[in-house]
Amino acid sequence: MTDQAAPPGVPVLPLKDTVVYPEIVHHLAVGRSRSLAALNAASEHGRELIAVAQLDPGVNDPGLEDLHPIGTLARINRVEKHEHGAQVIVQGIRRVQLTQDTREPEYLGVHFTELPAVTMADAGDKAPKVDALLRENQRLAQQIANVLDSENGDQIYQQFVGSIADPVTQMYRIASLANLNVEQQQMVLAAPDSLALMQTLHNILTHELQVIELRRQIAEKARDDLDQQQREHVLRQQKRAIEHALGEEGEDEDIAELKEQLDKAELPESVRKEVDRELTRLGRMSANASDYQVARAYLELVAELPWHQHTEDQLELAHAQQVLDEDHYGLEDVKERILEFLAVMKLNPEAKAPILCFVGPPGVGKTSLGKSIARAMGRKFERLSLGGLHDEAELRGHRRTYIGAMPGRIIQGVRRAGVINPILMLDEIDKLGRDFRGDPAAALMEILDPAQNQEFRDNYLNLPYDLSHVLFITTANTLDGIPRPLLDRMEVLELSGYSDMEKQAIASQYLIPRQRQESGLSEDQLNIGEEALQHMVRRYTREAGVRELERVIGRLARKRARQVVDEQPLEPEIDAAVVTRLLGPEKYQSDKGRRNLTPGVAAGLAWTEAGGDILYVEASLTQKDDKVTLTGHLGQVMQESARAARSHLWAVAEDLGLSRETIESTGVHIHVPAGAVPKDGPSAGVTMATALYSAYTGKAVPDDLAMTGELTLSGLVLPVGGIKEKLLAAHRAGMRRIILPRENESDLAKLPQPVREELTITLVENLEQVLANVFGA
């Protein structure tokens, strides 16, 4: 291989979808401006250029780095220009390797190194193998030509390939005529010698012949199937004509059975007309037609849907009250609302069913409450999980024009229930998604509106279906993720977390008996004392609901079951010590570090999706230049609350006995522990102001006191949400003194009376009252 002293800036013609081979004539279309400039430059200087394939055909102005390294030096034989570019005929001369871009202004020019020509003489001692591959490649090419054109294949091969004397040029011609992609064509061009060329082309032609054979077989089978369908269609038409002439017209057995099912369904008149039209269309189809199974599946859905079937509601309030109390402890507001609905239904059977939305932290019994309502009313129950649903068609269904179309989840749920008045629970409605496939929440606005769902049209069913008899119950952990128009269609019932006493009662009445049964233990074998139960609630769980508590009891039951199987001695009653021995170290320790709080630390109350929690705020004085430093993964609202608290303390410093000079001459660092957990909201404003006051005065906040409330810049304490959850969390944490905004007084009615009696709650209107109650000033 030797360097070619080529003239500077040999024009390059980049090719998108083809490769030029030596000694082969190619017809090329040129349209890009720089390619036309390269063509003009080559026409003026020797009529030679380098044709080379692009690595990426999508690049419109390729550089040297965008081209394959090996191309072909070609001679321009003819150029025909037109308004959109030019048609050019070139003939390859020899293979070259591009080495350097010469940076021509109007076109791409390069230096190159000439590559040795591929000849049969370079085979050496491998000449027999090369000759064998040559003949095999010729046979494969001829066979491909015959498969593509059985009548003229031999003639086409002889005309385009057999007439060429040089074997290497023959291989290049075969590669240029075969249906190869650019990468395969480039592999042929880059082959360094005759053996590599023959081997590369042999692999490609073998694969190409297999693909063409499979395509031919598929085409023949499709043609045979079509001929068979046409034959069957003609025979069916002839059969019907003969039956009509003999007066013996009949129906296909499947269609007759389907018609019988539709008759039993007692369809509404408007629906019956559409179904009869579809049934007639089905009868005229061949059973092998592509639309036959689609139409049949559609009619089967119509026949299976309940149009009039319904269950009789059990409207005895005493029975409903008994069922609800058997299944759930507490939840008096929700039970009262269900009984009110049953009372209305008893007086007015035509009353619209309400759309209920159960909102509360995980594990408080939202989903199981829906099952209890169905059992109390004697209705069928179906649960549909909407968590993570993005596609609107999942609810409304897909149109039948799509392959694999199905009805939406609502219609499917009604079909599974088999009645027009089931209870459909739409679980996790606050976790609906939204993307380019539509907004499922927008579809729910029609489904959950009693004024609109009387004629709900599923995209697949495309018939009016009455959903007004369905009792829809939705569940959510929070209302934040529910669009306001959708929330307006639902009646929200809040299910707050349970107190420790309620959890113990639920465990005794429901969880422990259920775990006994699942573990196969008797009451004597799993006898959990009150002390042990309280220990599990406070030291092994920290939640608003009872889901984790049931898992802990289940672990204890399994440990106990193994002791029974191993015939180990059992304690007559499980106490706290036995619980610790069986379950291991306590998961949640009492926060001893928060006893005897140091100045600058105050306990606040926070609300999360899992219920309430204690949130400690720590304030420390720093150097003046720091001003206000906030840490702990705080949101924008919480940061603003901290700044507002400091500003208010500075404004009323004299009234509170503080020194403005001290406030001005020191910076403040406020930190909220659990720094990896994002925190936001205005309800920590009062706590931050109290922590700052404690830091400035050196007075410690009592360790059994917690507070919540939004603080304004003028010192007013505004109401906040989640009061019940926050107070239950404070009670669990051992707090006994609580400071709340005055306007949250009405929320205390929702608090369980035993908890209310153990808490000393102070209602305040401004920060001065807060500080007076905290520090006795």
Describe the protein's architecture and organization.
With 777 residues, this protein is of the alpha/beta class. The strands form five sheets. The chain has a seven-stranded mixed beta sheet. The longest helix is centred in the first third of the chain and has 53 residues. The N and C termini lie far apart (99 Å). The N terminus is likely disordered.
Keywords:
single chain, about 775 residues, alpha/beta, seven-stranded mixed beta sheet, five-stranded mixed beta barrel, 22 strands, about 45% helix, disordered N terminus
The helix content, as a percent range, equals 40-55%
| Average predicted local confidence, pLDDT | 84
Strand content: 15-25%
- Note the total helix count: 26
Measured between the Cα atoms of the first and last residue, the distance is 99 Å
How does the major sheet shape up? 7 strands, mixed
- Secondary structure category: alpha/beta
> Strand sequence of the main sheet, in spatial order?
16-17-15-14-18-21-22
Low-confidence stretches: 1-6
Shape: extended
What's the total number of strands?
22
Q: What is the rounded Rg?
A: 41 Å
Give a brief rundown of this model.
The protein is of the alpha/beta class and 777 residues long. It contains 26 helices and 22 strands.
